[in-house]
User: Fold this.
Amino acid sequence: YSDIVTLIGPNEQGTQPGTEGNLDIQWMMGIAPGSPTIYWSNYANSTKEIDHILTWQYEIGNMTDPPLVSSLSYAMTESTANNFLGDGYIQRSNTQFQVLASMGLTMIFSAGDAGSNSLSAPPMGQLHCFPSHAMWPAESPYVTALSATYFTPLTDPICYLQ
Assistant:
């Protein structure tokens, strides 16, 4: 699809082809065929989960003709973001979201795939039932949150552990 979609960053086929990003691109192109579409990824030189939201924000903010709408399938709990990315990261990213919004850009973020309990593999998720909590960056007042539905079995309707 490289002749239809502008690629920015690595696009490794085979090992980690970006299944979720690929699905996002298919939906966007199916809903708005012919619209200019960019697949953006950032290289992580680490085996640990790291965050590139600020990197993306600076890059898109410096473009002469940035995309008007960005859809990002990315979320983690606010507490995980604070613990994992350090104090002040959310505040810095919110400032950048505000800058991008003031440029007329719309940013749509997933509110998570695993419900408000974020049940998934650590380090970004939780293995046990915890109270519901805000998902970042969807909780930012400068972006649009797109929610996910998380189905649980009838035997454990509040929280599901695999």
Remarks:
- The longest helix spans residues 89-102.
- The chain has a mean pLDDT of 75.
- The chain is about 25% helix and 15% strand.
- Residues 42-146 form one domain.
